[in-house]
Write a structure and sequence with these properties.
With about 475 residues, the protein is of the alpha/beta class. The protein has ten helices and 17 strands. It has two domains: about 100 residues; about 325 residues, Rossmann fold, CATH 3.40.50. It has a seven-stranded parallel β-sheet with strand order 8-9-7-10-11-12-13, sandwiched between helices.
């Protein structure tokens, strides 16, 4: 049936009259755009609220209708700043998004309405820097774009060490075994962080603790089957310094951990190689000491080859059963370990973390092996400054350098969470990486080691509420 214009006019007036009587503002019935406030609106001295700017000539009846509908109360009028600018409270439990939508919809009376935003003080993320004189050359810890060995780096391409150190600088209760060419345990920058077998009296020619090794006060030498793990090369000392050169001691460099205990275990001879039996013997020593109460939580292994050994795999797996993480270098042949496995990094055990090497511009190094399925993450491994025998310091490159960075960060995590399991530790290391586009499809995690995230250090506060 066709309605007359008078009918439509009458019907419209009746709807407006009913809405006015019921106190429901017309703008609420309009289609609202969706507004979402991200995060929790802050508490204020007045309770939850909003800031409203009413237009000049706004109708008092419309303002009252809006406020009455949401039980809003005008608490302040900023009339010295802007006429019509008010702070209004709303009862707790009222959806702020609905309130904002309603005010925003009334374009005749409301110029704008905003949440009662909360602003945070602008503060620097807590950081901690050591006084070690050569710290500025250790780009893997803090990269300010400094030039190393003739090549400038990219600022921020590092493990975020200074931020992590604001949370923890390590703990002497955590022991990391460095199974390598031995360690110069007399090095000025390492001596204070070398593990000591308190049940053994040094240099008395007696096996005081009855573990089968005489005078193993600072570790074990599987090559010569004795208790003197002094470095026969320089490789092991360099790796040890990355993990735990003493921090803030005014000497040389700083390790990922300022405080830690390094257990030197020598199985590599002065020629740079070691046998399978000595490698297993070294792991066996670490596991034995763990069972005797020494808190060895990490083995750092910067070595490997193409030979698959079930015995070596079994030895590493046994370490895992004792709660020991095994950090292994991925190898320096520049190949895909998924196609050409490198051992021990490619055994795929739950307690193994395989590490590739990246440079100071976040590129995978040309020499580093990789593997989308078999290599877990990358870490700084090119032009790394660390300790070498005889109180010296040297730059070295290799996945051999990258693995100790991961071992060091693992020890940082443990210093903060002493009961973390091997499974949880490995997961944390992989899930806390900084994503790097070039590493996607090259390593399991798609990223580079990040100590700051791994220890839960504070990250920048964006301080924004969007809608």
């Amino acid at each position: 049936m066709k309605r007359s214009p008078a009918y439509h006019l009458t019907l419209g007036l009746m709807v407006i009259l009913m809405a006015f009587i019921m106190g429901v503002p017309r703008q609420i019935r309009m289609q609202r755009k969706r507004i979402s406030v991200v995060g929790t609106l802050p508490k204020s001295p007045f309770g939850p609220g909003l800031i409203v700017k009413y237009k000049d000539g706004a109708r008092p009846s419309a303002i009252s209708a809006l406020r009455d509908h949401f039980k809003a109360t005008q608490l302040l009028s900023f009339d010295s700043i802007e006429h019509g600018l008010d702070f209004e409270s709303i009862p707790s439990g009222v959806d702020i998004n609905e309130v904002l939508a309603a005010y925003d919809a009334d374009r005749d009376d409301v110029e704008y309405a905003e949440p009662n935003f909360r602003y945070e003080e602008d503060h620097l993320i807590p950081t901690l820097f050591p006084n070690d004189p050569n710290f500025g050359l250790q780009w893997g810890l803090v990269n300010n774009g400094q030039e190393i060995n003739g090549k400038a780096g990219k600022k921020g391409v590092d493990i975020g060490a200074s931020t992590a150190w604001a949370v923890t600088t390590g703990s002497e209760d955590v022991v990391v075994a460095v199974i390598d060419s031995g360690v110069d345990y007399k090095h000025t920058d390492l001596a204070g962080n070398i593990w000591e077998n308190k049940k053994e009296i040094p240099n008395n020619g007696i096996d005081d603790d009855g573990n089968g090794v005489v005078d193993d006060y600072n570790g074990y030498n599987a090559v010569d089957d004795n208790g003197d793990p002094m470095d026969a090369d320089q490789h092991g000392t360099h790796c040890a310094g990355i993990i735990g050169a003493e921090g803030d001691n005014g000497e040389g460099v700083v390790g990922v951990n300022w405080h830690v205990k390094i257990m030197p275990v020598r199985f590599i001879s002065s020629g740079g190689g070691g046998t399978l039996s000595d490698a297993i013997e070294g792991i066996n020593y670490v596991v034995k000491m763990k069972k005797r109460g020494v808190n060895v939580r990490v083995i750092s292994a910067s070595w490997g080859g193409l030979q698959y050994s079930k015995a070596l795999k079994d030895a590493i797996e046994a370490a895992g059963r004792e709660g020991i993480l095994f950090v292994a270098a991925a190898g320096n042949s520049g190949v895909d370990n998924d196609r050409m496995p490198h051992y021990p990094s490619s055994y795929g055990l739950d307690n193994i973390v395989a590490v590739a090497a990246s440079d100071n511009n976040d590129h995978l190094t040309s020499f580093s092996n990789w593997g989308a399925k078999s290599v877990d993450l990358a870490a700084p491994g090119k032009d790394i400054l660390s300790t070498t025998p005889g109180d010296s310091y040297s730059l070295m490159s290799g996945t051999s350098m990258a693995a100790p960075f991961v071992s060091g960060v693992a020890a940082l995590i443990i210093s903060k969470e002493k009961n973390i399991t091997v499974t949880q530790l490995k997961k944390r290391l992989l899930e806390s990486v900084d994503p790097v586009p070039e590493l996607k499809g090259k390593v399991v995690s798609g990223g580079r080691l990040c100590a700051a995230k791994a220890v839960g250090a504070e990250e920048p506060n964006v301080g924004s509420i969007t809608y």
